[in-house]
Design a protein that fits this description.
The chain has 274 residues and is α/β, with parallel strands linked by helices. The protein has nine helices and seven strands, in the order βαβαβαβαβαβααβαα. It has a single domain, classed as Rossmann fold. Strands 3-2-1-4-5-6-7 form a seven-stranded parallel sheet, sandwiched between helices. The structure holds NADP nicotinamide-adenine-dinucleotide phosphate (NAP).
Length: 274
Amino acid sequence: MTRTDAAAYYNPMGTTALITGASSGLGVGFAHELARRGADLVLTARRLDRLEALAVDLAEKYGTVSTVIPLDLAAPGAVAELVRDLADRGIRVSTLVNNAGFGLFGSMVDAPAAPVHDQVAVNVQALTDLTHALLPGLLGAALTHPQGAALVNVASTAAFQPVPRLAVYAASKAYVLSLTEALWYETRGTGLKVTALCPGPTETEFYAVAQRSTAGPRGLASVDEVMRTAFDALDTPRTPPHAVSGGQNRLLAWLASVSPRRTVVTVTGRLSRR
Ligand SMILES: NC(=O)c1ccc[n+]([C@@H]2O[C@H](COP(=O)([O-])OP(=O)(O)OC[C@H]3O[C@@H](n4cnc5c(N)ncnc54)[C@H](OP(=O)(O)O)[C@@H]3O)[C@@H](O)[C@H]2O)c1
């Protein structure tokens, strides 16, 4: 399949895409590529100044109309508020990118309660609630805009195995992967493209937020590389249930899936030492 195959190409031109976590890193990458492809955007995250600056940049570069909605997805009722806001503004979302997420490095016994709770609130609960609320609209959009409707949930290569010292984070991403693959199956034949994007270590603010100085021996991928994986997956006629970014990451994910769990967690435990 080539990108000239118009029947398979993901084309959100004239539709609206909502990106969570649009204030930095992969969220900004999604915003640029979706805008370049002609989508209007809903940009959400906590840092309003970042979102507003991005909206101006996208308007100048691509003529994009962006709606900026600052929101803390860990706050109770945040998703309901977002969905109400979209309805009040008459915005119909055709592509949902559940990208917001974070991890906190360290053993659980030493972790403060709030970030432990908030990792699940953002990475798992908000993603699930937003997907559930918007899924009927996404399926409707797949009918009116064939090739222009998608659900992308950002998981991680951490989804494929337990990771000591990133225990809650890795468990949350295993959930995202499992949920998304099940939804991929449930929505087969509807035209909605569904995939879980699984990046490996990537050059964003993730490690600063996680309070971890290094990504380990593998180095960091660029946001552009990860975006190529995401949009290649969307551009294929049979969008895969998950897409792992990078050959080495694909190999490691496969190895984790065929190796004994005790061995896998022992290896990841050794690798995740500071
Ligand atoms: N970078 C990596 O190595 C890597 C690898 C695999 C998977 N991922 C996943 O990729 C996704 C994007 O992360 P990134 O790497 O781009 O890191 P990042 O640069 O730190 O971006 C994270 C985004 O999530 C938003 N966010 C965090 N907590 C939030 C909250 N409570 N409410 C609303 N928004 C919130 C942040 O916005 P505000 O701070 O402005 O709210 C920010 O826009 C995450 O799901 C992450 O788990 C990253």
